[in-house]
Amino acid sequence: MSDSEQQRDLSRRNFIRIGAAGGAIAGLGALAAVKITRDGKQTSDDAENPFEYDLTELAHIDPALMRYRPADTIARNLKDAVDLQASADGRFHIISADRVITYDENGAVVATINLSAPAHCLALDDSGAAYVGFTDHVEVFDAKGARRAAWAPQGDRAYFTSLAVSADHVFIADGGNRVVLHYNVAGELIGRIAEKDPQRHIDGLLIPSPYFDVAVGPSGHLWVANTGRHRLEAFTFDGDLVRTWGHATMAIEGFCGCCNPCHFTFLPDGRFVTCEKGLMRVKVYRADGTFDGVVAGPADFDQDVAEGLSVTPAAPGVGPIAAADAAGRILVLNPATGILQRFEPIA
Predict the structure, then answer these.
(1) How far apart are CA 153 and CA 255, in angstroms?
(2) 3-345 has which fold?
């Protein structure tokens, strides 16, 4: 391994180590293993621990706020998974280590693309082509899984965390450089979005850990998770800031911890689905950013038993990943356990 490669590898590992520690410490650090079932009952692995931080109130979700319920478990053993995307044909796609795995709506594997190295993120265009983000570059695969392009690497500081595709536009969240890179589908860099610019009233990105998500919303704006500021920000494709929403709070309607929401997506009706790490929650917000309700709370992310919660996930700093299908159901992947569940609206 060359000196530059060693430096880049160390930088990546430090990013992950620091980010994971920050996610555990800031807001919810040094947590005891408290279990909360969906009916609000609490148990503890050490009821006599005098230093235990009581998270009962935070971990318990008022049943009146629950808008979804678990429908079925689609897949297991996905602990290497780092991204989840749904497509209009009802299929869903997972980046798991050095593979892109495609499932049908029943959880059967229908296609696999083998990659040259572990990847971080994935986006699909309307033709079914897959844009796969590695640490510092993107590779493009056609609908049959054949690689058709590999874009130029973006340097030692690059750390790609999320991709979004809209028509001829490709957006890449570069957590290492704290910027969104705007490409065309030919792989040409045509702009940089969300960098600090006082003249355009852009505060810049605070990205304390390698969780930094982007998506194109139904209105045609690019949405960016400014995780250190605990909010989502909308930009035009030319980089103008349109609006923001979200705030830091331990209350259910906001985002807590060092850096949330760690992931987000959209429902077909334009509502947001957000994911939080630390105190693991998946929630729904209306198109204007007002809180709507909860999809999954801590009790749905158990690490130990069939019902309940270990508040500290098996892998510190790991957060759930969500995708929505055309019917408005929500797929939720817990990378700490490797379990993929489907949640359906409560009638």
Answers:
(1) 33
(2) Neuraminidase (2.120.10)
